[in-house]
């Protein structure tokens, strides 16, 4: 199991839910081996390891396949000094000492990249989608003066203060409500066709010229799904047809979609290509920033 999922297995909290969709339902626990066997018995192609999309050889091949598919990546070199300045100004150590304690550098770097790629300002209305307990909305509000909202399926339905509760694919907000939005370590958990429906909804929620940022962008050599069979085998998860299931022992999550360049085009770009302009980033020096950093790719989509 690679370093990314050793870290995440310790950090991902169990997510409460207040809708018909249950992210972590109560299920009969299985051993890892029994869970894998159950998935295999159901007809899935199962691999007994986590997905590696961070090692240099894998990254090179992913970029090669993306280029071949016409997906142009900009090499993005992160500035360590600017990140450190953001980290200190955001006050992670004093305000959020327990937030992703084992790998706060990864999460704070995701937040820094999102803030930078979106260029959030005081004029923006920003939504942190699938926010859960993320400090992003408070940090961005404090540092930029933007109006910020946190959205999550775990919150009560409707809008209460700066929380938007319910399904991200059907937000209780008016058309052209927001100018900026983000998903940090979130899009991969949108099951069945929810990822496609999300971008259709974002085309309604975002103003023309508005932008959404996704980091990490979980891209791989082929379309695949990461799962922990101890929580997914008996949960009735709707996996993508013909996907390969990579089983990450100890991960604790039921679903993590990794796109191939082609599957990303078919699922995300093609349905909204008349409404969004997509830009892709290879985080060139991510591994040099800190060995615990696992983000390698990101993308933005600008509302036309």
Describe the structure.
It is a single chain. The model is unreliable at 1-20 (pLDDT under 50). Helix content is 34%, strand content 22%. It has helices at 3-11, 32-41, 56-68, 80-90, 92-95, 104-118, 136-144, 194-205, 229-232, 261-272, 286-289, and strands spanning 45-47, 73-76, 125-128, 147-152, 158-160, 163-165, 178-184, 206-215, 224-227, 244-247, 256-258, 276-283, 297-303. Helix 8 runs parallel beside helix 10.
Structure in a nutshell:
By secondary structure, the protein is α/β, with parallel strands linked by helices.
Descriptive key words:
9-stranded mixed β-sheet, 304 residues, disordered N terminus, alpha/beta, 4-stranded mixed β-sheet, 11 helices, 22% strand
What's the helix and strand layout?
Blueprint: H1 3-11, H2 32-41, E1 45-47, H3 56-68, E2 73-76, H4 80-90, H5 92-95, H6 104-118, E3 125-128, H7 136-144, E4 147-152, E5 158-160, E6 163-165, E7 178-184, H8 194-205, E8 206-215, E9 224-227, H9 229-232, E10 244-247, E11 256-258, H10 261-272, E12 276-283, H11 286-289, E13 297-303
Parallel strand pairs: 1-10, 2-12, 3-4, 3-7, 4-6, 7-8, 9-10
Antiparallel strand pairs: 5-6, 8-13, 9-11, 12-13
Helix pairs in contact: 8-10
Order of helices and strands: HHEHEHHHEHEEEEHEEHEEHEHE
- Mean pLDDT equals 92
Q: Give the distance, in angstroms, between the N- and C-terminal Cα atoms.
A: 41 Å
Query: Could you give the order of strands across the largest sheet?
Result: 2-12-13-8-7-3-4-6-5
Q: Which segments are poorly predicted (pLDDT under 50) over 5 or more consecutive residues?
A: 1-20
The chain-level structural class is: alpha/beta
- The tally of helices reads 11
Question: Quaternary state, please?
Answer: single chain
Largest sheet: 9 strands, mixed
**Which term fits the overall shape?**
globular
Q: Percent range for helical residues? A: 25-40%
The Cα radius of gyration reads 18 Å
- How much beta, percentage-wise? 15-25%
Query: What's the total number of strands?
Result: 13
């Amino acid at each position: 199991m690679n370093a990314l999922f050793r870290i995440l297995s310790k950090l991902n909290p169990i997510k409460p839910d207040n809708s018909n969709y249950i992210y972590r339902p109560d299920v009969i626990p299985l051993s890892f081996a029994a869970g894998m066997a159950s998935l295999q018995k159901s007809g899935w192609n199962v691999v007994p390891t986590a997905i590696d999309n961070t090692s240099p050889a894998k990254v090179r091949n992913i970029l090669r396949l993306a280029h071949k598919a016409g997906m142009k990546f900009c090499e993005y070199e992160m500035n360590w000094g600017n990140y450190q300045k953001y980290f200190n100004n955001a006050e992670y150590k004093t305000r959020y000492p327990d937030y992703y304690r084992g790998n706060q550098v990864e999460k704070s770097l995701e937040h820094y990249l999102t803030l930078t790629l979106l260029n959030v300002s005081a004029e923006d209305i920003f939504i942190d989608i699938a926010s859960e307990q993320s400090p992003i909305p408070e940090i961005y509000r404090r540092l930029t003066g933007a109006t910020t909202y946190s959205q999550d399926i775990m919150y009560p339905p409707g809008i209460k203060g700066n929380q938007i509760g319910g399904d991200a694919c059907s937000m209780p907000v008016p058309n052209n409500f927001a100018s900026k939005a983000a998903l940090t370590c979130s899009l991969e958990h949108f099951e069945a066709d929810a990822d496609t429906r999300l971008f259709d909804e974002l085309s309604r929620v975002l103003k023309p010229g508005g932008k959404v940022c996704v980091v990490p962008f979980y891209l791989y050599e082929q379309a695949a799904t990461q799962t922990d069979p101890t929580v997914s085998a008996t949960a009735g998860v709707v996996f993508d047809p013909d996907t390969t299931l990579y089983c990450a022992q100890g991960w604790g999550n039921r679903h993590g979609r990794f796109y191939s360049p082609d599957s990303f085009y078919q699922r995300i770009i093609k349905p909204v290509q008349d409404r969004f302009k997509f830009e892709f980033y290879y985080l060139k020096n991510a591994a040099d920033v800190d060995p615990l950093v696992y983000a390698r790719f990101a993308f933005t989509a600008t509302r036309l």
